[in-house]
Amino acid sequence: MTMERDDWQFPWAKGWPEIDRAGMVEVDRRMVETYGIALEKMMENAGRALATVAWRRWLVGRDAPRVTVLAGNGGNGGGALVAARRLAAWGACVEIVLARPATALAPVPAGQFAILKGMGIAVVEDPPEGAGLILDGLIGYSLSGAPIGRVADLITWANGSGTPILALDVPSGFDASTGRLAMPSVSANATVTLALPKRGLTDPAVRWAVGDLYLADISVPPALYATMACPIRTPSFAGEDILRIA
Ligand SMILES: NC(=O)C1=CN([C@@H]2O[C@H](COP(=O)(O)OP(=O)(O)OC[C@H]3O[C@@H](n4cnc5c(N)ncnc54)[C@H](OP(=O)(O)O)[C@@H]3O)[C@@H](O)[C@H]2O)[C@@H](O)CC1
Ligand SMILES: [K+]
Hints:
Elements: H1 11-14, H2 21-33, H3 39-59, E1 66-71, H4 75-89, E2 93-98, H5 107-118, E3 122-123, E4 133-137, H6 149-160, E5 165-168, E6 174-175, E7 180-181, E8 190-194, H7 207-210, E9 212-216, H8 222-226, E10 242-244
Parallel strand pairs: 1-2, 1-4, 2-3, 4-5, 5-8, 8-9
Antiparallel strand pairs: 6-7, 9-10
The protein binds ligand NPW and potassium ion.
Ligand NPW is lined by residues 24, 27-28, 39, 42-43, 46, 72-79, 100, 106, 139-149, 151, 168-169, 194-195, 218.
């Protein structure tokens, strides 16, 4: 699978369709209710894509590389927990840091967390030093206001760690409704966004937070996009389920 395709390099030059939070919530709803593509399935695709980019860009060839996974209690955290499972199975030494107590995890992320516990994956309270990569699964498209509390502390810690950061869907702190960054915002080396680029992600002004941008296919049927209130042209993945688009 080639991760780089020249013709995908500059989406704003290519008119990549972008989507805001409301649109993505509608896509998620129709995936489940119209097509029966369960959240677990979407989350598995999201997490595997995150793990694949993590492995191929930062971890391949290294012996038991250490990965710190920062997980919020929503779908973004769930996708990162799937990536944690895949990376652990590929030989990474994974440490999970939850932003909220495990009891606050939403049902599907909680299921992912239970699997990780069953695998004996380490869950640590304080983020460890010296990891080779940090996964940002704190907040995705459901940011509400500027990050606060432990989430904000973890963002600040990750940014100051000197360790590369790979963000899921959006860098935590990025507002997918407005395309603007709240502070603090994760300053990611790369972001794996899901289905469609979230509104504003390809704006060069936010590149310092987004980093290199990958788009992951989570199997949205073209007809779903075509019958949206504002029809969307489907990105052509054509057998390559992760594309670098910026
Ligand atoms: N088809 C797809 O695209 C798929 C998308 N998927 C993924 O789901 C994501 C959307 O998931 P979501 O809606 O569960 O919420 P999400 O973004 O995880 O954030 C909620 C968390 O953020 C927190 N939080 C919010 N604001 C905050 C603040 N200011 N300061 C601090 N904390 C704040 C909030 O805390 P709380 O409000 O509960 O206290 C809660 O913990 C999406 O981005 C994608 O990654 C996958 O499921 C696969 C399919
Ligand atoms: K994130």
